[in-house]
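Aim 2 progress update. The chain analyzed this quarter is reproduced below.
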Amino acid sequence: MQSVVYKNYINGEYVESSSGERFVDNNPADTDDVLGYFQLSTREDAKNAISAALEAWEKWSETPPGERGRILIKASEILDSMREELVNILTMEEGKTLNDSRVEINRAISLFRFYGVLASRIHGESLHSSELRTHLITIREPIGVVSVITPWNFPAAIPSWKIAPALACGNTVVFKPASYTPLIGYLLVEALIKAGIPKGVINYVTGSGTTVGLEMITSKNVDAITFTGSLEVGEEIRRLSATSGKNIRIQLELGGKNPAIILPDADIDKAVEMVARGAFGLTGQVCTATSRAIVIDKIADEFIRKIVERAKKFRVGNGLKEGIDIGPVVGQRELEKILSYISIGISEGAKLVTGGKRLTGGEYDKGYFVEPTVFTEVSPDMRIAREEIFGPVLSVITASSFDEAIDIANSVEYGLAASIFTNSLDKAFEFMKRIKAGVVKINKPTTGIEIQVPFGGFKKSSSETFRELGETVLDFYTKIKTIYIGY
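Predicted structure tokens:
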């Protein structure tokens, strides 16, 4: 695999970038391990991909939904046949453990199957008119060319939950994966090709967000943009998309600063395990990761003692090895960001009680490994309590009451996921009503979502326009036409 050069896929052909340049895809657990070389594409390459998608759109949109669904289901079967190969590649490319990679690949397979089946069930409504001899119906039509721009932390699942429904609805796609993880995205596209997707319907272009991504955002031939990534990039996409001269539909998922509230009546041991899993699992590189534990003060000492003990038990290393709980951070830039936030926390006066360092020595020197980190004596106004770190760093904040805990939880600009640990039905329902988050968990970690229900956040965690996943996502990938029939 080390010497393989991977090409873009545009209009049914594998093509090199017009730049003639490439970038390298490394294993973050061992940077000497080169997984392949990918095209450093230009805006011209992106324009060609968009033109191909535009040309293919009319025929694909008229393809019977059952046939579109058949191709998605076939792609699911192809991915299923490659399951263990994909699991290993995902671990080598992104760094997560084999167990975590297996969960993600299984989800990608399920997503193609789910939307393949759903394709034949996309429908409008029949309604009664207020006038005589009049019939009202609505129909759903595909929106057009969709730009799909995805992050590196779930490089199989997130592209799948964007591409599969887009195609099921009759749209064509231009797909740019994150440059840290282009290989797993390439293999998803390859499965669609093997399943018989017509040329131009799916187009794959690798490269920089400031070149390829910019064209995908501002092109007048793009009808919709779906993006998952940082708040800063998402806000720039929102601004730049307005320059295309048309009303582009936008779907943004932009991260979180997710709280877990622990009340005195909770099962503390269960809460510790769930918070630890949410904070440190997947190296904390999850938009729904638990980054704030808000603990009622009377149980704070016990919770802190147990969460520190649990954090120290996580085994950090190469995800390909058995017994490893946490893999590396995905890259040098991300490692430096995490370590800088740890320094900020210390300078702000928070108490570093465990972790906080890059792991070095032996195999650690070849990768980007950081210790699971816990801060205590954190106040809600500190940067480590307000800004997304995207690493295995947990801030423990104490509150004197349930009401104060809710206020602290809602005090940040994000509102993606939130959880509470309690045995009180009253407090659980009060939490559900008052928490400002799009994903709410009771006695469960903030991480972990299911594909059949809507996903998205409140406030700056999302564009708050269209949800992802489930059948609700059809609202983003289709437009509704209302028809009046007089007889």
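The chain has a mean pLDDT of 97. The CA atoms of residues 176 and 206 lie 6 Å apart. These observations will guide the mutagenesis experiments scheduled for the next reporting period.
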